[in-house]
Amino acid sequence: MVDLFTGLWYHKIILEWLEHKNMKKKNVILSIILIIAVLFIGYRVYDAAFPVAKSLEPFTDYPDVGDVLTVTISTPDGESTGVYGFASLIMQIQQVEPTRKASVNDTPSAEFYYKVAVATENKAYNYFVYEEKGQVYLEIPYLGIYKGQYNTGSSSLMEIIPDLIAKYPAG
């Protein structure tokens, strides 16, 4: 009789332990599913609230170097100059990467910026270049704000523009 009672008691403990273990396993699985769902929904909300600017398209958002007729660079205080040797400038514009920042004004909110006006036979392109927190940005009004991605040895737009004004002034 004692062996039967002990066996039932032991069996009951094992069953409770297995039931508890299964509940724990279910809770862990449900927790993981819940965390994944929250992360997915959070990403979707973030992506909808702060969309990535569209990638720049050749001939639509920047010209081919051979098609450029004039390049004029100006500052907010009204100083303006045309430049020649602009191939490096156009190449840097082609290398920018989209950000999640939106361009909602005609001009950037940065204190100091360069306006780069590029004219071809068929279209005029306007870009604004500025530096913020050590990062160089290119802004195209109402299209997007782009971040410079420069290879080693390349100069940033903020370095190229003053050099162009000094070395290749038009007229």
UniProtKB/TrEMBL annotation:
Name under which the protein is recorded: DUF5301 domain-containing protein
Pfam families named in the record: DUF5301
InterPro entries per the UniProt record, alphabetical: DUF5301 (IPR033782)
Domain DUF5301: 87-147
Keywords for this protein: Membrane, Transmembrane, Transmembrane helix
Regions crossing the membrane: 28-46
